[in-house]
Specification:
Elements: H1 2-18, H2 23-37, H3 40-46, E1 48-51, H4 64-74, E2 80-82, H5 87-100, E3 108-111, H6 124-128, H7 133-149, E4 154-155, H8 179-194, E5 207-211, H9 230-246, E6 251-254, E7 258-259, E8 262-263, H10 268-278, E9 284-286, H11 304-314, E10 319-320, H12 324-334, H13 340-357, H14 369-375, H15 379-392, E11 394-398, E12 411-415, H16 441-446, E13 452-456, E14 462-463, E15 473-474, H17 482-490, E16 494-500, H18 521-531, E17 535-540, H19 548-553, E18 556-559, H20 567-575, E19 640-647, E20 651-652, E21 657-666, E22 672-682, E23 693-702, E24 707-715, E25 721-722, E26 728-729, E27 733-740, E28 749-753
Parallel strand pairs: 1-2, 1-10, 2-3, 3-4, 5-6, 6-9, 12-13, 12-16, 16-17, 17-18, 20-28
Antiparallel strand pairs: 7-8, 11-18, 14-15, 19-21, 21-24, 22-23, 22-27, 25-26, 27-28
Helix pairs in contact: 1-2, 2-13, 3-12, 3-13, 7-8, 7-14, 7-15, 8-9, 11-12, 15-20, 17-18
Bound molecules: 1-deoxynojirimycin.
Residues 112, 156, 209, 288-289, 508 line the site of 1-deoxynojirimycin.
């Protein structure tokens, strides 16, 4: 039987070489033929995904659970596996699928390659702060190259969830709060992973996740319920998913949350109507881990059988780790609860992606030991990681031009528990990174030999070894090293304090209600600032933190996220001015946690607040409405001035364009890059419209004294949104356009769409 598949394939390829044929037809014909040979159990098996459950290169599995899965694997009841690592392991499992199952259908191997495989890049939120789409594509390409060299062919990335809530630990994994930028980043990352041709040896299948609304988990609590209206769904949450489809993403993952009170995994409207019908997505949807089973505690499914039925009806094609498709689908079809055609449709989608990867031609194509030995964490890949790390750093504040540091002469105390931490900077989804393999700030700064540096950690942030599965144990009591740090500060010219979150304090299941510096770090900072306030605070974190006290009291603040393998080198190069920081925030930093969710594209309300003193307006009695650091904010060692802002016409037709321009000048003393941002406000709409929406940006590099005219074209497509008519369209009326270096820009020009 297996032979017949390969004979058919060879035939198809011979035919395709001889004359012009429709390859898509060949693919579909091949898949339909294969489906016609499959039993119901084999179809359910293709829809089943298991986590790696035993060392496939070692002895036979023991234990009932493992044995059961092993038998299923041999019987063709597993279509995919996740978290199987390394060429040998993957080859061994693939061999079972290809040689021991009746039809020999190869497995597809998935893994969370989120911000690098062995070479670790900045966490995605950090990398989005570079606004550099080519860079994001490149880092995804490097990750794909490494993962595919190590046997994998599918990543569960990019996460394209928009989120406005810094309490939610998974903000580290996305591109921030803006749907326009988020869409461009989604496209870049999908293309980075998948390349132009999935059949290429160094590309892997991407997965847009989590569909949908996961980033709106109430109160930032992971896995929680969501509550938003259909306009938020279409105008804010969906655009990056749609962009991923337009970029050709081949898989989607649904999400743990409910939306419209329905678990996303069982949500027919978003999966079948929107994604598969309206957007013509013909790849497949994998559930999130156990999310089919979790429809039971959600109170949506009665039992496993019901959950499997609801998930299939809703369009979830592959079951990640619920084991329910494999145990329930045959019965559900036989009893008439589910039409077999629904299984055929799901299987067709899965086989299509396997076919596109070239797995039917060569199931072992990613299992090349030589490649995995030579391509992982190469010097070349590490240099991309360094570039990405530098570009992801955001200079939040720089009073008195404390930065850049002088290269000679000054005595610098490097203080803080994260300054010599070689593990935290690897971030949360560090895949195959070697423990403690990031460069630390202390190491990076020591390379600048002209300076005298001393290091004192001052305090421990956490106890023990941290990992993905357990909570980080924070130190709340032991201040015994405060004294040494104070002495170092007292005897130095400058203090560089490296504080923030441990790498596993953000990410999945890492929600926090207090988003200040954890543990005793703020107390240490306060003590040090009393002794020597020439402080440069370097903040490592996987989310926007509450930095209000720091902003008021510390002269220079650098947001350094979790920057990956080359973290310390990148930070040192920025501190010493070898790289002039150019990052801009893609997520607002709140003044305190009570302001969350806080985001730049808010609605005006009927009673907009202009001052804290106003009582019956939409504001707070204790802080302003604006965030501490807004979306788009980020300083440079040089200064940029904007002038001559103009629009060439104040009338825009549905078929015409207008041009807006501004003169950007580098008025400082360093060469630098500016992210010039275009925002538009739709003054009156059929639904209330945001105060501003990002609609374009350009990264411009200028030498001191140099200037450039920056132009943006506006046409009506840029003004479209999901209107009260339930359609994407632009509405006639008045608009304001702004160009500036962050979302706080106030000067605008007016135009009309007519
Ligand atoms: C659960 C996470 O939500 C998802 O993003 C991830 O891909 C899967 N686990 C697999 O690890």
């Amino acid at each position: 039987m297996k032979k017949s598949i390969y004979t058919l394939l060879v035939l198809l390829f011979v035919v395709s070489c001889q004359k012009t044929v429709d390859l898509d037809n060949d693919k579909e014909e091949f898949i339909n033929d294969l489906i016609s040979k499959m039993t119901l159990a084999e179809k359910a098996g293709q829809m089943n995904q298991y986590n790696g459950f035993w060392d496939a290169t070692g002895p036979m599995p023991e234990g009932d659970y493992q044995k059961k899965r092993y038998n299923e694997l041999k019987n063709g009841q597993v279509g995919s596996m996740l978290n199987v690592i390394g060429v040998d392991e993957i080859r061994a499992l693939q061999k079972i699928a290809v040689e021991e199952t009746r039809l020999g259908i190869p497995l597809i191997f998935g893994h969370d390659v989120i911000h690098g495989y062995k070479t670790i890049f900045p966490i995605p939120l950090a990398e989005s702060s570079s606004w550099d789409l080519d860079l994001m594509e490149k880092s995804a390409r490097v990750a794909a190259t490494e993962a595919s060299a190590d046997g994998l062919n599918w990543t569960f990335a990019p996460m394209v969830d928009i989120s406005r809530d810094a309490r939610w630990g998974r903000v580290m994994e996305g591109a921030g709060e803006d749907p326009y930028l988020g869409s461009l980043v989604a496209k870049a990352r999908v293309h980075g992973f998948q390349g132009d041709n999935l059949n290429d040896i160094n590309t892997i299948v991407a997965c847009a996740k989590h569909f949908a609304g996961y980033g709106f988990s109430e109160a930032g609590r992971d896995y929680n319920t969501t509550d938003f209206n259909q306009y938020t769904l279409h105008n804010t949450i969906m655009p990056p998913f749609k962009a991923a489809v337009d970029a050709g993403v081949r898989t989607f993952m649904n999400s743990f949350n409910t939306l419209d009170e329905i678990p996303a995994t069982g949500h027919k409207h978003i999966q079948r109507d929107i994604l598969k019908r309206d957007w013509s997505f013909d790849g497949f949807i994998v559930s999130d881990w156990g999310s089919i089973d979790q429809m039971i505690p959600h109170g949506f499914a009665r039992d496993g059988k019901h959950a499997a039925e609801l998930a299939v009806l809703a369009g979830s094609d592959m079951d990640m780790e619920s084991s329910l498709y494999v145990s329930q689908l045959v019965g559900l079809v036989e009893s008439g609860n589910i039409a077999e055609e629904l299984l055929n449709d799901a299987v067709r989608r899965i086989l299509r992606v396997k076919y596109e990867l070239g797995l039917f031609e060569d199931p072992y194509k990613y299992c090349n030991k030589e490649r995995s030995d030579s391509e992982l964490a190469s010097e070349e890949n590490m240099s991309v990681a360094l570039d990405a790390a530098k570009k992801s750093i955001v200079l939040l504040k720089n009073n008195n031009q404390l930065l850049p540091l002088q290269k000679e002469g000054e005595k610098i105390a490097i203080i803080g528990p994260l300054a010599n931490d070689k593990n935290s900077p690897l971030g949360n989804w560090r895949s195959q990174a070697v423990y403690n393999s990031a460069s630390s700030v202390v190491e990076g700064m020591k390379k600048y030999k002209g300076n005298r540096t001393v290091f004192e950690k001052g305090v421990d942030l956490y106890y023990g070894k941290t990992n993905f599965h357990n909570r980080v144990k924070i130190n709340y009591d032991d201040k015994s090293d405060f004294g040494k740090a104070k002495f170092a500060a007292a005897t130095s010219d400058i203090v560089v304090m490296v504080l923030g979150e441990e790498g596993n304090q953000s990410g999945e299941g890492r929600s926090r209600t207090n988003i200040g510096l954890p543990g005793l770090q703020l107390e240490l900072l306060k003590e040090i600032s009393k002794i020597n306030n020439n402080i440069v605070l370097v903040v490592m974190s996987g989310r926007p933190l509450d930095l209000s006290w720091e902003d008021e009291n510390i002269p220079a603040i650098v947001q350094a996220w979790h920057l990956g393998s080359k973290s310390g080198d990148a930070i040192a190069q920025v501190l010493y001015g070898d790289y002039n920081p150019s990052g801009k925030l893609t997520m607002s930093f709140p003044r305190n946690v009570g302001q969350v969710p806080v985001y730049y594209n808010f609605k005006n309300t009927g009673r907009p607040s202009t001052s804290i003193e106003q009582v019956t307006n939409s504001g707070y009695a204790d802080v302003e409405n604006s965030p501490l650091y807004s979306f788009g904010h980020g300083l440079s060692y040089t200064n940029f001035s904007y002038s001559n802002f103009s629009v060439d016409s104040d009338k825009l037709g549905f078929d015409s364009k207008i041009n807006v321009s501004v003169k950007l000048e580098n008025t400082g003393f360093y060469k630098g890059k500016e992210v010039v941002q275009l925002y538009i406000r739709d003054i009156v709409g059929s639904i209330a419209r945001p105060m501003k929406e990002l609609k374009g940006f350009k990264i411009v590099e200028l030498a001191p004294g140099e200037s450039e005219i920056i132009n943006f074209e506006i046409d009506s497509s840029l003004l479209e949104f999901y209107t009260y008519n339930n359609k994407w369209e632009a509405e006639v009326g008045k608009f304001h356009v702004f160009i500036g270096g962050d979302s706080n820009v106030t000067e605008f020009k007016e135009f009309y769409l007519d």
